[in-house]
UniProtKB/TrEMBL annotation:
Gene3D superfamilies: ATP-grasp fold, A domain, ATP-grasp fold, B domain. The keyword DNA damage does not apply. This is Pyruvate phosphate dikinase-like enzyme. The lineage of its organism: Bacteria, Bacillati, Bacillota, Clostridia, Lachnospirales. InterPro entries: ATP_grasp_subdomain_1, PEP_Utilizing_Enz, PPDK_AMP/ATP-bd. It comes from Natranaerovirga pectinivora. The keyword Transferase applies. Residues 296-676 form the Pyruvate phosphate dikinase AMP/ATP-binding domain. One of its GO terms (molecular function) is ATP binding.
Amino acid sequence: MKFDKASTGNNGLDEIINFLRIGDNVVWQVDHIEDYMRYAKAYVKKSLDDNRNIIYMRFAAHPPILEDNENIKKYELDPSIGFESFTVEVHRIIENEGLEAFYVFDCLSNLLEAWATDLMIGNFFQVTCPYLFEMETIAYFGIIRGNHSFDTIARIRETTQLLLDLYNIQGKLYVHPLKVWNRYSPTMFLPHIVDDSGMTPITSSAESAILFQYLPKKGLGNPKRKLDYWDKLFIDAEELIYTSHNQNKSKKQEMVEQLCRLMIGKEEKVLEMAKKHFDLEDIISIKSRLIGSGFIGGKTVGMLLARQILSKNPQENWNDVLEAHDSFYIGSDVFYTYIVQNGWWHLRLKQRSKEGYFEAAQILQEKMKEGIFSENIKEQFLQMLEYFGQSPIIVRSSSLLEDSFGNAFAGKYDSVFCINQGSPSERYKQFEEALRTVYASSMNRDALEYRMKRGLDQSDEQMAILVQRVSGDYYKKYFFPFLAGVGFSHNSYVWKEHLDPKAGMIRLVLGLGTKAVDRVEGDYPRVASLDQPTLQPLGNEEDKKKYSQHTVDVLNLEKNTFESLSLNKLMWEKVGIKMDLIGIPDYETNKKIKEYNIKEQEAWILNYEKLFKNTGFIQTMKKMLKALEDAYTYPVDMEFTVNYISDETLRINVVQCRPLQTKGVVGNVQIPEIENEQVIFETKGNFMGGSIDQNIHRIIYVDPKGYSNLSTQDKYAIANTIGNINKGIKRDVMTTILVAPGRIGSSTPSLGLPLKFTDICNMSILCEMAYEIMGMVPDLSYGSHFFQDLVEADIFYVAIFPEMRGIQFNMNYFIEATNSLVNVFPEGARFQEVLKVIEVEDIAIKGDIKSQRLRCYKY
């Protein structure tokens, strides 16, 4: 180290604080920015004389602290990019400038214009100040007195080395050191009056009276000083509500726009919708249920917007249909504060680097499962839980990037049910664990790879939280909604040529909606096109039973757990479900029950025929989705529940709504008439993703019989081999189709390849082939999170059922084709009998969504 001390450029101040020391962060609390400038300029002038490396961090709208000078490096920063990106950029500059640099920062109070909360300014200082100290720097900061809460000033005081009050009273300047780290003198912490001779400690009562008489006028005794800037902003907003409506109409709209930018998000399309559909009273209502501050996140915004659009729709009285909600929201600032106050910010910064993107994320993910929250936030959590009592709740991710136009993040982050039974302390513990789990999921590998794939790896991704009362009712010891599902205003999966894609479709299940959005092994939700809901994709009665829902997801209140129960078990417990509305008796199973003389038990098949035919449910869903699509001017994807509050009254709870990622239809595609021996495979229907017209360059084929004979370990190994081949595929030059038995992405290897989405993300087409003798059957899971991944990655999907009439699958082509596996991935040589990589030049695939014909063929 070249030196231990440095001058402030002011002899009187040097004498009071015994000079600056290496590592000092100096915070000036002032009334006017000009007073901070005076001392910052003196410090810089002296430092330049001493040939120091001077860095000016420029980010505020106020006049520059320092004039342009070729010997001063000025960095122009934009705090509107968000706390994380801004802080990362500042740290990058500090790292690049190296040891013993001297810094001047613009006034920190101006960050409120971009971030709105003292909390985030405190977080910024708390993570930046120690790094400056570590880099052996000296840095000047300014803050405006009275603009920050006591809590924020306390955090700054705790972190900084020097905190100096600078008063300007009737032209007289007073400097009052509040904190000077590692130095002491008998008069150091007295106020000092500044005059031509230097700085003199105030010891006389007369001078003290002038100063301290002034302090209450500047807000020391003002109760608003205890409030965050964020809270003050909402106090001003509430005052606007109670003034004359016409008098302040424009001011109210300005306030709505300001609050939307601070709470709703940054995406312009969403902001425009929010400003259109939320008024000031709506924003205040959202704030009343917000814990902490910051953004409420994409999932919350989508839910609230959808409800607002419907409730204010003049053409329908949706309030008679909608189930009320009383959700709470945990602001995104709480997420960052959780990281900062638990001392993990260095890991967060490391995770933002290319080298640490995955490695640091894994460490941070584990730490986030064990962190603690501030007492203030804990108290708000407790009050929320007291409000819900013992009603089950769900803690849902609602990140900034989630559910936006173009990025659904479907299923990438966790949502956790809190059954919410037990003593208050037990329920609180369960809630905190759920919250930590959701926070930690922001660092899971699937989410990070998704972000990297979509160019979002350097974007601010804060995790807000949506806490919802679980929609449903008590069914003896179980709790669940009567029905749950996901609806789409546009149906990309029309399995018959006369179905209308614009009519939309739904996936519907009995019980919790988890089975409606996830691919579930051996279980199937009811898929219905809203123009012809009774028309099912699979025709005969045996298929309708086989490909129906067999298990029901519920919350067990006695065991305090989430459970998947067989439908028959739930029926035999006679919990009071309206089965006559959604199912028909399973006559074959009931006949066996009778033969075995089992009494008071009955089996059912869920088909929803009466619900569709005898109630207004389908029309309601159709109108609701159409109203939302019109408001979004874009297709939508809506999660919902259905409950009956009496025998006749149906209530729909809109749980989530987001723009639906859809593939464009490539007009009419002419399917050429060719010889049978040219056909590789052909199907009528059973494909998703609009029309297709592409030449194929590579086929990856998994032999169904060979795969079924592999050990479980080898099934995972062959999936890993495909994942490695996938890494080398460049989609723009190599159109690749994966043909495999059963369900691609299955968590049960016996039912299909246990591939992760990152193992298939460079494929152009997925073809799931039925091999029913071993129970490997495709799942046309339109609307599931898996399907959303395919849509966003622009991967076409087709299911082949070789045994079905009218379907062709040329097995001989795959048997006789030359295998290039060893050339492409030599480590996979041992799987040559099961896995083939077929390089081709004369294969095309054409599919027409209107005629529902699809053919892959040699030309």
